[in-house]
């Protein structure tokens, strides 16, 4: 028995053999011709989307009178799944077709048909956010790569597995499968098909911190696909441009890109799920612009107050355009989120709905309405938890951490439950860190460390040393991400840790040349007692790491730590 035969296949084969005599075909069902399937396949790989969809409409009788016993039935299910993935109707259609394949029928399918059926099942699971289930189906197909000469099928299986891994936040593996799928498509001469896969590669490079590489790949893909009517992928390209621009702080460019993406999606389906994604992203960008305006409003208000104390009049008219635009952006963001939620609800898309609730929560938090913000964070977490969506779960916990920190600073509830909000903020930050570590989302983990540090800086904990360690970890993870709101939070943490830091009186005296009657050797020993415990804390209380970092013996490190009471000496053997 070969390793690729999984439990599902064994069951289907067994039931198929047992019921082989019962095989019958409906006399009224239509034949699925080889020519028709070849045309569907050709339209797919060349990205002639409109022509392929028209061909499916012309053969709608195959859907209404579908017979899984007919020749090519499994192949048709697989191709239909690919066409639904590029915008033909909804995933429910594929579910209806797949459901007609009973276990006995599956067991009698030729291997090639069975592989396509498993691809259809994987696509359904992927669309329903059951990522591990989808990967199981794709792995089955990929495990039989030596048993089939359908290289297009293997290219799609690699590509779809890469998409699932991206959803899980496993970016390195996702990139490897996306590249393998694209290589197969290129070797077959299917440039448009390969270009579609390059869009996924681009996003993964961006998540890994290489925005330039991501944009270069997108431009290459756009040059090829602009000659096709694959509006869905063209929309994805503009959406990616928007996400990159937003991350870089080029907010107006981001809004223009998201607007272009929505226009492309609507050419295929006025209520396509990806429209909701772009609306959600656009709402977030508008929120960030509004935050910038609010800072300008606050700065102007402070300037006017300062002028008033000096008895000078100030021009109050300047604040009105800022305030009007600020309120306009907030209302537009709320409207975008409402439209996005309505679309996501049609698809029962938990990740999308959770992201919408997060953005609602941030808007309420920005407005100081903590009682409205908290339920949004909780709802987002619940939706994410249903699908073990670690990325969304971590983001929801981060929002909850921010809300609890705001309560600490405002002193809400401290009279009856001192420290409860601070400890809850600390718990949320730690949980966000643990969830982010289940992914390769470097930026998410950095933000989690930032907010753990800001929590240590709040007025309840007031622990700048722990906050400084969080800052160091976040800074290491934040390479290159210097433009968005997360970077501003990192700079806020840096400022707080610097304000909270203190210089040892001994070091201050030495810097002025005041050493008393101590010898250089005594000063060296005292300096070691000051510095080594600090390095020990930063290195995770690992003596071996301190010894390596400072090029000294572990024995000496232990002796100094013991002398200052930071470590119990090892018992003598």
What is the secondary structure topology, with strand pairs?
Elements: H1 7-18, H2 34-46, H3 49-58, H4 61-64, H5 73-85, H6 91-99, H7 103-107, H8 111-127, H9 131-142, H10 151-168, H11 171-187, H12 191-207, H13 211-225, H14 231-247, H15 251-268, H16 273-309, H17 319-347, H18 350-366, H19 370-386, H20 390-410, H21 420-436, H22 442-456, H23 464-477, H24 485-500, H25 505-511, H26 520-538, H27 543-550, H28 554-563
Relevant terms:
573 residues; Serine Threonine Protein Phosphatase 5, Tetratricopeptide repeat; mainly alpha; single chain
Question: If you had to describe this structure to a student in words, what would you say it looks like?
Answer:
There is one protein chain. Among the domains are: 138 residues, no CATH class; 115 residues, Serine Threonine Protein Phosphatase 5, Tetratricopeptide repeat; 56 residues. The protein has 28 helices and no strands. It is globular and about 100 Å long.
Rg is 30 Å
* Helical content band: over 70%
What are the secondary-structure elements, in order, as H or E?
Answer: HHHHHHHHHHHHHHHHHHHHHHHHHHHH
CA-CA gap between termini: 56 Å
Q: Give the CA-based shape.
A: globular
Proportion of β residues?
under 5%
Average of per-residue pLDDT values = 88
Residue stretches low in confidence (pLDDT < 50, at least 5 long) are 20-27
Question: DSSP helix count?
Answer: 28
Q: Which structural class matches the secondary elements?
A: mainly alpha
């Amino acid at each position: 028995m070969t390793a690729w035969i999984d439990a599902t296949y064994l069951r289907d084969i067994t039931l198929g053999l047992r019921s082989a005599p019962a095989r019958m075909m409906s006399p009224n069902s239509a034949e699925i011709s080889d020519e028709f399937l070849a045309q569907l396949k050709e339209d797919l790989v060349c990205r002639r989307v409109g022509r392929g969809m028209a061909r499916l409409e012309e053969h709608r009788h195959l859907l209404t009178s579908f017979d899984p016993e007919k020749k090519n039935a499994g192949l048709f299910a697989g191709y239909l799944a690919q066409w639904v993935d590029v915008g033909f109707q909804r995933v429910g259609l594929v579910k209806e077709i797949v459901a007609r394949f009973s276990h006995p029928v599956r067991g009698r399918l030729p291997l090639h048909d069975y592989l396509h059926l498993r691809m259809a099942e994987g696509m359904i699971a992927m669309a329903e956010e059951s990522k591990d289930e989808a990967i199981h189906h794709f792995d089955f197909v990929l495990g039989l790569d030596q048993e089939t000469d359908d290289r297009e099928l293997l290219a799609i299986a690699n590509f779809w597995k890469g998409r699932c891994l991206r959803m899980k936040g496993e970016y390195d593996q996702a990139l490897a499968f996306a590249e393998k799928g694209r290589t197969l498509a290129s070797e077959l001469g299917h440039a448009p098909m390969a270009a579609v896969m390059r869009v996924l590669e681009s996003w993964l490079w961006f998540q890994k911190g290489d925005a330039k590489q991501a944009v270069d790949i997108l431009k290459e893909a756009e040059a090829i696909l602009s000659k096709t009517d694959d509006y869905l992928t063209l929309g994805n390209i503009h959406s990616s441009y928007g996400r990159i621009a937003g991350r870089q702080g080029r907010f107006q460019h981001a809004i223009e890109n998201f607007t272009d993406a929505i226009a492309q999606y609507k050419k295929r389906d006025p209520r396509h799920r990806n429209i909701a994604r772009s609306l959600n992203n656009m709402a977030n960008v508008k929120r960030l612009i509004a935050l910038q305006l609010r800072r300008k409003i606050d700065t102007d208000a402070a300037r006017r107050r300062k002028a008033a104390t000096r008895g000078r009049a100030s021009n109050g008219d300047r604040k009105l355009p800022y305030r009007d635009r600020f309120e306009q952006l907030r209302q537009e963001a709320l409207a975008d989120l409402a439209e996005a939620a309505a679309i996501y609800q049609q698809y029962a898309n938990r990740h999308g709905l959770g992201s919408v609730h997060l953005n609602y929560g941030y808007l309420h938090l920005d407005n100081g309405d903590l009682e409205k913000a908290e339920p949004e964070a909780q709802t987002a977490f619940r939706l994410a938890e249903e699908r073990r969506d670690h990325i969304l779960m971590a983001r929801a916990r981060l929002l909850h951490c921010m809300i609890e920190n705001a309560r600490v600073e405002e002193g809400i509830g401290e009279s009856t439950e001192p420290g409860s909000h601070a400890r809850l903020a600390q718990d949320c930050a730690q949980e966000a860190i643990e969830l982010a570590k289940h992914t390769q989302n470097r930026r998410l983990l950095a933000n989690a460390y930032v907010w753990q540090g800001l929590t240590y800086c709040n007025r309840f904990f007031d622990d700048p040393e722990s906050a400084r360690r969080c800052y160091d970890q976040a800074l290491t993870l934040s390479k290159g991400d210097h433009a968005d709101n997360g970077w501003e939070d990192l700079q806020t943490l840096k400022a707080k840790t610097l304000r909270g830091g203190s210089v040892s009186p001994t070091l201050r005296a030495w810097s002025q040349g005041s050493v008393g009657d101590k010898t250089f050797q005594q000063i060296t020993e005292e300096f070691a007692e000051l510095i080594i415990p600090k390095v020990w804390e930063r290195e995770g209380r690992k003596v071996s790491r301190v010894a390596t970092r400072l090029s000294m013996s572990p024995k000496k490190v232990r002796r100094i730590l013991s002398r200052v009471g930071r470590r119990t000496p090892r018992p003598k053997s």
